[in-house]
Amino acid sequence: MKRTFASFVLLFILTCQIAGAASVSVKNLRLWNAPDSTRVVLDLSSSVEHRITMFSNPPRVAIDLRGGKLYSGLPKTVKNNPYIKRFRYGQFDKNVVRIVIDLKREVKVKSFQLKPNASYGYRLVVDLFDKYSASPAPATIARPKPVTPGGKIVVAIDAGHGGEDPGALGKKYKTKEKTVVLSIARELEKLLAKDKNFKPYLVRNSDYYVALRNRTRLASQQNAHLFISIHADAFKNSKARGASVFTLSDRGATSEMARWLANKENSSDLAGGVSIKDKDDYTAKTLFDLSKDKTMEYSLIFGKSIHKELGKFARMHKKNVEQARFVVLKTPNIASVLVETGFISNPGEEKKLRSKSYQKKIARAIYQGIKDFRKKHPEWFLDS
């Protein structure tokens, strides 16, 4: 009797598992176009067992989902995409749904799953890259070229998050951090472009995600002398407020809040399929390189210039520049800061951050901080 009951329980569990697998629904399919890739995102009702298969003549990618169920109305046609012609959907066998991506050319593929966040549920991400494009070179530690008389200082402006990673989400208006910071970054770009002493470079100029390591790699390729990462974060306590300026630390965070924010920002690379361990190992190695030059010293001075200008009109979360192990600030030889423009989780600050006039104030304060640093520390650009 006990054996019969145990067999019944086991059969019941297996039946539930199979039923659960069969209930995975593909609710939507979305595309994010970046300069060097296209991201295909499947919105799912839960995690799913999947398989990616590449075909040629003609080139295509098959995505097989075990126990999948397709919603009606999924997109089939694609316009103005360098890789994708169209999508096709069908039942591969009784347990597997197949999505076929018909391609214009051969590609390299990377896939991974994402857990729910503030904006989206479970997702399967399929990234498409040009098959014959070179793999991104690791960020070099070569110094940027010194600024010659009449030359321009290159300022890399990094709007945090983007694409599948919305960043923080406002509680009252559901404002997305990625949208606010891109707007501020564009305002800063305009100010710098009008100044004969500077050449701005936007790390991302539209709504797509750039991996944290690639952000600094791109800045280095542009011969950047300064790097500014712009954010608008959230905290579990909606009363938290105030802008902050951060630089990289080689000794841990200067406060619990700084540590929490660094961990949160660093985890955004999960949206790019990068593991936390990879970043920890890479950051530890880079800190050794940074300790051998003056990057951390001048980054802190640079941060103080921006902190001072922001404090003239904005409430500051802390009286001083804070430090933590932000992966995006790790590049040797580029003075780098991260600016948290406020807490988007605070309804009052969320309302301000949505305002175009307030965004322009923030951009101008950062711009004035850049000018002040250039005026007081020309040696950084001559010795770069």
Q: C-alpha Rg, in Å?
A: 24 Å
For this structure, what is the CATH homologous superfamily of the largest domain?
A: Zn-dependent exopeptidases
What is the total domain count?
2
Give the tally of β-strands: 15
Distance between the termini: 81 Å
Class from helix and strand fractions: alpha/beta
Give the mean pLDDT: 87
- And the CATH topology of the largest domain? Aminopeptidase
Strand order of the largest sheet: 11-10-12-15-13-14
Oligomer: single chain
Assign the CATH class of the largest domain.
Alpha Beta
Helix share, percent: 25-40%
The ordered string of helix (H) and strand (E) elements is: HEEEEEEEEEEHEHEEHHHEEHHH
Could you explain the architecture of this structure?
This protein is an alpha/beta fold and 384 residues long. The chain folds into two domains: 108 residues, Immunoglobulin-like; 230 residues, 3-Layer(aba) Sandwich (Aminopeptidase). It is built from nine helices and 15 strands. Strands 11-10-12-15-13-14 form a six-stranded mixed β-sheet, sandwiched between helices. A five-stranded mixed β-sheet has the order 5-1-2-9-8. Strand 3 and strand 4 form a beta hairpin. Helix 2 crosses helix 8. The N terminus is likely disordered.
Layout of helices and strands:
Blueprint: H1 2-22, E1 24-34, E2 37-44, E3 50-55, E4 60-66, E5 68-70, E6 84-93, E7 96-103, E8 107-114, E9 122-130, E10 153-159, H2 177-193, E11 198-202, H3 212-221, E12 226-233, E13 244-248, H4 256-266, H5 276-291, H6 295-310, E14 322-324, E15 335-343, H7 347-354, H8 356-376, H9 379-382
Helix pairs in contact: 2-8, 6-8
